[in-house]
Amino acid sequence: MNIAVAGTGYVGLVAGVCFAEKGHKVTCVDVDVNKVELMKAGISPIYETDLEELMRKNYEAGTIEYTTNYIKAYEYADAIFIGVGTPERTDGSADLSYIATVARQIAETVRQDCLIVVKSTVPIGTNDKVEQFIKDFLVHDVKVEIASNPEFLAQGTAVHDTLHASRIIIGTESEWAKECLLRIYQNFNLPIVSVSRRSAEMIKYASNDFLALKISYMNDIANLCELVDADIEDVAKGMSFDDRIGGMFLKAGIGYGGSCFPKDTKALKYLAQKYGYQLKTVEAAVDVNKEQKTRLFYKACDRMITFKGLKAAILGLTFKPGTDDLREAPSLDNIPLLLEAGAAIYAYDPVGTENFRTRYPEGKNDNGTITYVHTPKEALESANICFIFTEWNQIKSITPKEYSLWMQTPLVYDGRNIYKVSDMNQAGVEYHSIGRRNKNIH
Ligand SMILES: NC(=O)c1ccc[n+]([C@@H]2O[C@H](COP(=O)([O-])OP(=O)(O)OC[C@H]3O[C@@H](n4cnc5c(N)ncnc54)[C@H](O)[C@@H]3O)[C@@H](O)[C@H]2O)c1
Ligand SMILES: O=c1ccn([C@@H]2O[C@H](COP(=O)(O)OP(=O)(O)O[C@H]3O[C@H](CO)[C@@H](O)[C@H](O)[C@H]3O)[C@@H](O)[C@H]2O)c(=O)[nH]1
């Protein structure tokens, strides 16, 4: 089929490339000229495993193209997928302005019957509004219908998650729309769950918020573990054997970040409030996460008399490994606090440094300074304190002994529970992590 995709971020670009890979003719549209030029040159504007290879393969085969010319892309498309952002507004609600812009552009350009598929995460009822909006502004006498097809990929594994998705959710209001989506996904050979549009929109939020809740629950239990001298890693392991609980997303740490969990929990909380309902579980997940993110910093404050002039090694800036994305990363909560306290920060991240530098330029920031380094060793050498924010392999491969060899004071605050407490203590490191008591400190 002839498919257009609006937005070439994590969702739009990966969906477009995978549709091309599965035999469709795809045109990816973005308003960002630089992104489009990069993609035409075979370069992915986002850091994702396997993406560039598939982009090049399909571009050379002529099954995918990139453009800023939405008119050409939309006018004779059989289906248009919308994958633009729905960021958080200051009140927690989802900003639908990008969706509205694309909807208007579609209404004014489509010249043949067309299925419009909303892949972006949108509040329940948005698809209805998009349909009405497009019909209100439709220029040509054609049939348009809206379907919901939320996306479940995770960053860092986006291509794999799309080609091997656990399920494809299609939310439609007619047999025509359903048949069309079934045809689009025919070659993916994946389980398809067909529901109403509103249920599909809810499945996305309910899934993300459940995972966020699971993480916050484990973080809450982890904090209690520290008080009662239990070990959260052992607790999670013991829980994971129960199939009803499952082994995934039980990892306690420095709180969830990323472009989705933080905003989607707040958006559902906001939506519930709008209907006069208090979504207490999700609210609790949000509250726990907020405190979790700076818990280690405040623990360090209890231990230190000052950060002024001290060398603080920061290992990991991105919200998770496998991505250069900094959205809602714990580093963004903690580094400003350390700078305010006067620390001399030496930050290492294998791919996130350039993005971080645009927000915090090298040199003096607030009362402190920040220096970006190329290796963990440069960050750790002569350091007085170390914070681990991301569990990159390059960071996991630092041995406990190296901390005590390289640092002036081997004092480590690990937000990802990378090491065994006993290994760190044996190596002479004062080690603070999440949900596990440092046996050397009472
Ligand atoms: N990032 C993820 O892992 C992920 C996973 C599942 C769902 N989602 C949801 O998918 C949506 C998109 O997320 P993302 O992370 O891919 O966003 P993103 O910010 O990475 O990309 C959005 C893209 O849309 C482009 N754009 C804006 N207006 C446009 C227009 N009028 N026409 C064409 N392009 C336009 C932007 O230039 C940008 O390149 C959000 O609703 C998000 O919640 C994201
Ligand atoms: O046990 C865990 C698992 C994850 N995290 C953290 O949770 C955040 C999100 O991680 P992850 O879910 O792996 O990454 P995302 O790319 O944000 O993907 C989530 O958000 C996407 C956007 O909606 C969804 O499509 C995905 O299904 C969903 O996993 C990160 O900060 C992780 O460090 C934990 O703290 N403990």
Automatic annotation (TrEMBL):
Pathway: Nucleotide-sugar biosynthesis; UDP-alpha-D-glucuronate biosynthesis; UDP-alpha-D-glucuronate from UDP-alpha-D-glucose: step 1/1. The keyword NAD applies. Its EC number is 1.1.1.22. Gene3D superfamilies: Cytochrome c1, transmembrane anchor, C-terminal, NAD(P)-binding Rossmann-like Domain. It holds the Pfam family UDPG_MGDP_dh_N. SUPFAM superfamilies: 6-phosphogluconate dehydrogenase C-terminal domain-like, NAD(P)-binding Rossmann-fold domains, UDP-glucose/GDP-mannose dehydrogenase C-terminal domain. Keywords: NAD, Oxidoreductase. Signal peptide: none annotated. The keyword Oxidoreductase applies. It catalyses: UDP-alpha-D-glucose + 2 NAD(+) + H2O = UDP-alpha-D-glucuronate + 2 NADH + 3 H(+). InterPro entries: 6-PGluconate_DH-like_C_sf, NAD(P)-bd_dom_sf, UDP-Glc/GDP-Man, UDP-Glc/GDP-Man_DH_C, UDP-Glc/GDP-Man_DH_C_sf, UDP-Glc/GDP-Man_DH_dimer, UDP-Glc/GDP-Man_DH_N, UDPglc_DH_bac. GO terms for biological process: polysaccharide biosynthetic process; UDP-glucuronate biosynthetic process. GO terms for molecular function: NAD binding; UDP-glucose 6-dehydrogenase activity. Belongs to the UDP-glucose/GDP-mannose dehydrogenase family. This is UDP-glucose 6-dehydrogenase. The gene is rkpK.
